[in-house]
Amino acid sequence: MQAGVRNGAIAASDRKRQPPVAMLALAALGVVYGDLGTSPLYALQEAFNGDHGVRPTPDNVVGVVSLFLWSLILMVSIKYVLVLMRADNKGEGGILALLAQIAGDKAETAGRSTCFWVLLGLAGAAMLYGDGVITPAVSVLSAMEGLQVATPALAAYVVPATVVILVLLFMVQPFGSGRVGVVFGPILAAWFVAIAALGIAQLWQNPTILQAINPLHGISYFQRNGFAGFVSLGAVVLCLTGAEALYADMGHFGARPIRLAWYGLALPSLLLSYLGQGALLLAHPHLSVRPFYSMVPEWGLYPMVALATLATIVASQALITAVFSLTHQSVQLGFFPRVLVLHTSRSHKGQIYLPLLNWLLMLATVAVVLGFRQSDKLAAAFGLAVSTTMAITTILFAVLARGRWHWPWWAVIVVAGSLFAVDLAFVLANALKFMDGGWLPLTLGLFMFMLMGCWFGGRRLQVKEGQDRQLPIEALLSSLQMNPVARIPGVGVFLSESADGTPLVMLHHLKHNQVLHETVLLLTLQMQDVPRVKGERVAVQRLGEGVARVVARYGYMEEPDVPEVMARAAELLNLPELEPLCTTYYLGRQTLVPAMGSSGFKRWLIGVFGFLRQNERSATLYFGLPPNRVVELGARIEL
Asked: K+ potassium transporter C-terminal domain: from which residue to which, for each copy (predicted)?
């Protein structure tokens, strides 16, 4: 009875320590909705400007605004908030969470059909890198362009000011986002309130735009404009940028706070902002070049530019953090080479910093700003990456719903098929903007997909070759009984990718050195298709002849810690505490080379994989091993 009371008291205490839902919703505004929230700065103007813009006639304005409103409702409220947020992986979302559920724990050994879905998922994830480059550029640049609306003489300073802000943003990344993250939510809350107020002011003067709530105006817009109306979907998709972040970041806050923030403030504010811009254009169509800042009274332009700059910095920070997390998850799932990951917070494991990626992002983002120089030109390049990722996410959801959830075919077609039809329309409309800048995110995405695809393909070849060469552990133990080898004091830890058979590095060690430690531990680190492993992480099995197998399980959001695993294994095996000076870690390094007669594609794949393998972060550093106790044994394998 007392134990029950204590457990109840602990549970109640845990509930008290959890932040209120309202506080989590406020924090979610800053992290989740930064990109979606700052889209009104540049999205609507793109529909009426450039080579593919339509004339801002009253009917066109009402039709375009109707498309914006219903895109937010259908694609964000229904697709992401209502449907996809149910496709979480133990609370985590995002395209890699979908992929992990489809592929399972052993993607490298999966069949061809699963391999296809893995590659498709990697293509969608790769496109997010293009999003990570363009979002900071277009967001901050569009905010700073308010300066030239306030004072045309300041137009020459827009690009330099944007570059300075972006450089400073990337320079503070090593300090972590935790210290400034507490103000992200209030800044975005103030931003949403401000854009809603501007929209209401315009609606009060011209409520005719409320006709756009009727979706029939969006349909008649296509009938009236024909092909030009279809092409303008490339501008409409800009109001959806950041929807993937909403899904990917659900693990940080949970579904309920994200939904509360969306329906309670973000969605109403966005709808009012687009309605307000439409009301302005009905009265003053010549202001279609910069409708957002044209809503702002003259006395409020500079404060609004300042608030917009803060909001876009928050949006940029959220995308940078998302790219860091995406790369970290890719490494843990085996889809990307090991890179240096620094944790910037002792209390929050999710706050990480990737130095190499940070500086590459900075150079790419600054180059994009200097190359395009105007937000409307960048906006043309923006939609292709966003729409492609959204379409791939829908396909993977359909595969998950049918394969894992066993939905009937008619339900998959009705739900996923309807959403994919809209996604496909967005992709095709944005593909027409390829020469206007759409090549940029596509090029970035294809480059990242090449790296991730070659790494995944190389890993599959390596794992298959290792399985073919592997000796059953029973055969090794039997050989040790019949032909004992010299044993030396201490512990030998052999790292192995497989939790069965004999590690190749151990066979090479025996072949060349003819000696074993008194205690031999075969260590396997298994990455599970869950974000974090609950319960006992380490499992041990005594095999005989002083050999034991140790298997440690980690989720794709966690960081392996070999010394910690070894300490727990020693405890479970009733071994004395492992002395660092008496423990030797053996790592295998395999070099793949194409065999004679290999196809050109296979040679290219192995060549890229080999280059990445040579330049990835050292396993010694990645696993936290003492450098002076590590022995690496190499092997050259022809494939």
From this structure: 489-639
